[in-house]
Amino acid sequence: MDAYLDKARQNMDAAKHLLQQDSSLHIAAVHPAYYAVFQTVKYILDTQQIMDYATQDSKAGGSKSHKILIDEITKDVKKHHSNNCNNMCRHMSTVRLYRKKADYNNSPISENSINEFYSNIQDLFSDFDQIYNVKI
């Protein structure tokens, strides 16, 4: 098994565990859920021969690393799977927005917003399964 795919699954399990243990941990669960998506993106880029891990590491270091890799998968979806692009791009954008809110903003996140975040996470995993046959 690929290490990134394994990490993605573990991070999603951790997010679910946090949510099941204590509803007050819903913001803390955003981080591992987001990283489950990000690590899945890394796996897809490599296994679909879009960008191998070595190139990912060399091109996507620093503060814009997530944007670079997410832009790469978005370009692939637009080019090869255009009928799936609008939904997947919208889901990815929403997930990134909530991850930034949870990690960097000094404002509360409502339970409804968290529910929207997790709905988009599940939608993204469905997109990944449908487009790339990758299951989390």
Layout of helices and strands:
Blueprint: H1 3-21, H2 30-47, H3 53-59, H4 65-80, H5 82-104, H6 111-132
Helix pairs in contact: 1-2, 2-4, 2-6, 4-5, 5-6
Structure report:
Helices cover 77% and strands 0% of the residues. The mean pLDDT is 90. The protein is mainly alpha-helical and 136 residues long. It is built from six helices and no strands. It has helices at residues 3-21, 30-47, 53-59, 65-80, 82-104, 111-132.
Task: Kindly provide the radius of gyration, computed on alpha-carbon positions and rounded to a whole number of angstroms.
Answer: 15 Å
Beta strand count: 0
Spell out the helices and strands N to C. HHHHHH
Q: Class by helix and strand content?
A: mainly alpha
Please tell me the overall pLDDT.
Answer: 90
Overall form: globular
Fraction of residues in β-strands: under 5%
Report helical residue fraction: over 70%
Distance between the termini: 13 Å
Q: Tally the helices.
A: 6
Biggest β-sheet, characterized?
none
- Which oligomeric state applies? single chain
Give the low-confidence spans.
Answer: none
Question: Which descriptors apply to this entry?
Answer:
single chain, 136 residues, mainly alpha, 6 helices, 77% helix
Structure described in brief:
The chain has 136 residues and is an all-alpha fold.
